[in-house]
Amino acid sequence: MLGSTAPTSAAPVRASERAYQQLRGEILDGLLGPGTGLLEVEQAERIGVSRTPLRAAVARLIADGLVVGRSGRGFEVTELSVESITGLYELREGLEVHAVSLAAERRDVATFELLREKFRSAPELLLQGDEGIRRYYDLIDDFETAVDAAVANPFLYSALENVRTHLARIRRLARGNQERLRAAAAEHTLIIDAIIAGDTLLAAHATHVHLHQSLTNVLATLAEDAATPVE
Fold first, then answer.
1. What pTM, to 2 d.p., does this model score?
2. 3-state SS class at 28
3. Coil/strand/helix, residue 84
4. Quick one: 110 and 192 in the same domain?
């Protein structure tokens, strides 16, 4: 009897996970933009799951802060407002400045020296179109992974992962700004140099400058988009 019931109980879990991963990926990639409505029946049919696992997936997205309920019926993708982005960066600075300071104390020098070599290729990568930009963001992921490993604090890691989920949406705003991406690569290189040197104060300051420049650029891009007339 146990063998006959196990597949039935496992199937909804798989369907829920599939729905969650698909919706999450579409939100982070911008395919489901801010304010996009998510009607239960429509999304369940589109993804190919029943409504029960779809609801479970949406519940996880709400916990992630990527989806909210909306008046009337259904749900919608959360907006990227000035207030929400500014609040996220306030949290991001507190977490990342502390993380890089700890990384400068606890780092494996060889790991960050290898990262520094990789970042030297960033200017060339950024000239290679979408594929080069994707590889550049892979370098950012490698840097974050190295910092997480150096810090070795699962509580800090968990908090950072939540912030990074939302940053994935915000990063899309800078993808077409080559000047900003080149500047960000240089800022990351300075942070890495400070970590290699074991200079906690410089690592913290370089991270503060990087986040300030990043936020300034994001808010300027939002303002430009808001001012652009819809044709």
1. 0.82
2. helix
3. helix
4. yes
